[in-house]
Write a structure and sequence with these properties.
binds adenosine-5'-triphosphate; five-stranded parallel sheet; binds magnesium ion; Rossmann fold; 2 domains
Length: 410
């Protein structure tokens, strides 16, 4: 009767697959048609099959589920959807034995299933089993702020540059999925693959320290840069699970990883029924979840301060950024009164209970000069007021996050 096939295929493809299996000349036969993952796992545990043919978007089909199928001696043949390539990537990362990209061709699925069964190699372990140990545990600092361009990128870049001056190995990651520009701000002209390539390797379970180091070139002494998306519409390439793995490996590469993030914290609606769907804000939310400290930046004008107050509330509501340092950027008397520092400090204390915000002056001459040259402030205007404030911020950040860093972890 051949090897039993557990079929958990959704939609119109199912009957074609069943037909093709039954037409395999007795080498395969469908032993159970499963409506969902629970049924599939039950059938696998009951020893009803040697191979499972599954839709890549089967609900809750994750690394654990694939591992469970393997434990039951069931090989996993997943059906990818060419219009949603990230599904195939995810299933590969989860350890599926093979992902067939064209579900319409049922005979190809049967051939792949037979190929997997004929292969002498044991079921592939999920790539997690081969994850590289991280030998030191650097810290992660996310720079986040609400909409309105308060200066997240400016701060992330210059905070990273100042931490490097303080003699720490620093990795700067551009994780803004709405338009990463860190490479341009730092005058890196070649379009290196950066974060997207690191995320791809993470998804395939092959991201190790040498790979991350290769993808993140040194742009200043002790400062590496993992560039962002060259095109904003490529955001599905940076899913949450890959971002998490990139940041985990980053802890092994640098004493401090500074992450420039997007502004938006909303979970896409689609998540309510498909927890595996890619989400545009996943990289930002993951960075905030993983961060040991979040630098929350707001603009010093009245609108910016109000947005900052709301943003701090949003972070709290979302259970994010328990450890935070608040920065108010572009402080100037023209929008905050003759004593802008006092006005902003009083507003933040009153409306957000924040009493220790770092204030960075509006310093157009210095910041523009650095932008024009594609350099860090410390290189172009080392004595400028903005640079002095960011340097002080770096000292504070280092004192907060580096005490517990460098602890070896498994
Ligand atoms: N302290 C400052 N003084 C003068 N100009 C500044 C200062 N901080 C930031 N800028 C300028 O303000 C603009 C916005 O800053 P930046 O790009 O860092 O904001 P952002 O929050 O990352 O915005 P986006 O939403 O585009 O990612 C830039 O032109 C930057 O050079
Ligand atoms: Mg930015």
């Amino acid at each position: 009767m051949g090897v039993g096939v557990l079929c958990a295929v959704q939609g119109a493809a199912e009957s074609a697959i069943v037909q093709a299996v039954e037409g395999s000349g007795g080498r395969l036969s469908v032993t159970r048609r499963c409506a969902d993952l629970t049924e599939l796992l039950a059938a696998a545990e009951a020893g009803l099959g040697g191979v499972a043919v599954v839709s890549a978007d089967l609900d809750r089909l994750d690394r654990e589920a694939v591992a469970e199928l393997h434990r039951c001696g069931v090989r996993v043949v997943a059906l990818g959807d060419p219009t949603r390539p990230w599904l195939a990537e995810r299933l590969t990362a989860h350890g599926a034995d093979v992902v067939v990209e064209v579900p319409a061709d049922a005979d190809a699925v049967v051939r792949e299933a037979l190929g997997v069964l004929a292969g002498a190699a044991p079921a592939r372990p999920a790539p997690e089993a081969g994850r590289q140990p991280v030998l030191r545990r650097g810290a992660t600092v996310a720079v986040w702020g609400p909409t309105g361009a308060p200066g997240r990128t400016f701060l992330a870049v210059n905070l990273a540059a100042e931490l490097a001056v303080l003699d720490h190995d620093v990795l700067l990651v551009d994780a803004d999925t709405y338009g990463g520009v860190v490479a341009q701000v730092l005058g890196v002209l070649d379009e290196s693959p950066g974060l997207a390539a690191a995320a791809r390797a993470a998804g395939q379970g092959t991201l190790d320290l040498p790979t991350l180091a290769r993808l993140a070139p040194v742009v200043l002494p002790r400062l590496r840069l993992l560039t962002g998306l060259s095109r904003a519409d490529r955001w599905p390439e940076i899913p949450a699970s890959s971002t998490e793995e990139v940041l985990r490996v980053a802890r092994g590469l640098a004493d401090v990883t500074v992450v420039d993030t997007g502004f938006c914290l909303e979970q896409d609606e689609v998540l309510s029924y498909d927890t595996h769907a890619p989400a545009r804000n996943a990289a930002t939310i993951t960075a905030l979840e993983q961060a040991d400290l979040v630098v929350v930046v707001g603009a010093a004008d009245p609108v910016g301060v109000q947005r900052l107050v709301r943003a701090l509330g949003e972070l709290t509501d979302a259970g994010l950024a328990a450890d935070r340092t608040v920065v108010v950027n572009r402080l100037r008397p023209t929008v905050a009164g003759v004593r802008p520092a006092d006005a902003v400090t009083a507003a933040l204390a009153r409306y957000a209970g924040v009493r220790d915000a770092v204030l960075v002056p509006d310093d157009r001459a210095a910041v523009d000069a650095a932008l024009l040259e594609g350099r860090a402030l410390r290189e172009i205007a080392p004595g400028s007021p903005a640079r002095r404030s960011v340097a002080a911020l770096a000292e504070r950040v280092a004192a907060r996050v580096l005490a517990e860093a460098r602890v070896p972890v498994a």
